[in-house]
Design a protein that fits this description.
It is built from four helices and four strands. By secondary structure, the chain is an alpha+beta fold.
Length: 143
């Protein structure tokens, strides 16, 4: 496993980080575009996930670490509308004009399409989705 994959699969999540609800309630989803790549000789577009333009009071590296920590936690907690809850999501955040670009991708076609769908719903809301418990109720987010 390359070192980049090891970092993505086991993020170091600081215990002293701000509560998840506080961090993600301050993230505004401004725009969403599909993340696609050309494959094969026929140059067919294949969906890999979504690119989100977000505004957040965090630096790109900090938001990327927070996103990886959240993805590691919420993907195992049951149903959610959170794009980071898609199993195996790969996260990359970088500076962009007007905010930060968050690229959420998956090598699996179905998961990539699910990432795109959830990202579109986050854009419709304008904010990052709250975590939902397995019973379907919103629950307070923990540290």
């Amino acid at each position: 496993m390359p070192s980049g994959e090891a970092e993505r699969s086991a993020p170091s999540c600081p215990a002293e980080a701000a509560p998840d609800a506080y961090v993600w309630s301050s993230v505004e989803v401004v725009d969403v575009r599909p993340e696609r790549e050309l494959v094969g000789k026929a140059r067919i577009h294949r969906t890999r996930g979504a690119r989100l333009l977000v505004r957040a009071p965090h630096a790109a590296a900090e938001l990327e670490q927070l996103a990886r920590c959240r993805a590691a936690r919420v993907s195992s907690e049951g149903p959610s509308d959170d794009p980071l809850a898609v199993p195996g999501v790969e996260v990359e955040v970088r500076d962009a004009r007007g905010g930060l670009e968050m690229r959420l991708t998956s090598p699996h076609r179905e998961r990539a399409l699910e990432l795109e769908r959830r990202a579109e719903r986050a854009k419709e809301r304008g904010r990052w989705p709250p975590v939902v418990s397995s019973s379907g109720r919103r629950r307070p987010e923990r540290l």
